[in-house]
Amino acid sequence: MPVEVIVRWHGKAVRKVVASTLNQRLEKTAQMLEDYMKGLLDTPYPPASKAGEPPHRRTGKLKDAITHVVTVRDSWGTASIGVMDAADAVYAKFLEVGTVHMSARPFLTPTLVNNKSRIMSIMGQSMNGVVAVAIKPLRNKDVIS
Asked: At what angle do helices 11-40 and 116-123 cross, to 10 degrees?
């Protein structure tokens, strides 16, 4: 007697679990990048930082202004990391890119460049088990004999 196997794909459930898992990883990644960026701003002033190095801490206002926000829309997340409110540290953009009178003291760019592998490690973790959670086992009444 042949055995019949029925496979049911629960696409909506899989999408929900995958999106939720990726959004959790995105939050973890954003927090890691925020912490790293704040760490770059820990060197005290004086002396002043050299051109091309992250700025040295004078008041701590820039470091305090660094934060991250993960926004979820239609199940998928987007992360923003840095100074969200320019009023908190209006000079942040000048430090990052420089001016005609001052060389850049970047802190955003080095954060991303120096953490590419960590970002990929967190976001690229295996999805094994994630899909399995969303695939519901068949009940006896679902099996056709």
From this structure: 150
What is residue 66's DSSP assignment? E
**Residue 115 structural domain:** 11-134
Domain count, the chain: 1
What does the pLDDT look like over 34-74, one tens digit per residue?
999 999 999 999 999 999 999 999 999 999 999 999 999 98
pLDDT (tens digit per residue) in 89-139: 899 999 999 999 999 999 999 999 999 999 999 998 877 666 565 555 555
Note whether residue 123 is domain-resident. Answer: yes
- 142 domain residue, yes or no: no
User: Is the residue at 112 inside a domain?
Assistant: yes
Query: What residues form DSSP beta bridges with 79?
Result: 70
Cα dihedral across residues 78, 81, 84, 86: positive or negative? negative
Q: Answer yes or no: is 34 within a domain.
A: yes
3-class DSSP state of 71: strand
R_g of the chain computed on alpha carbons: 23
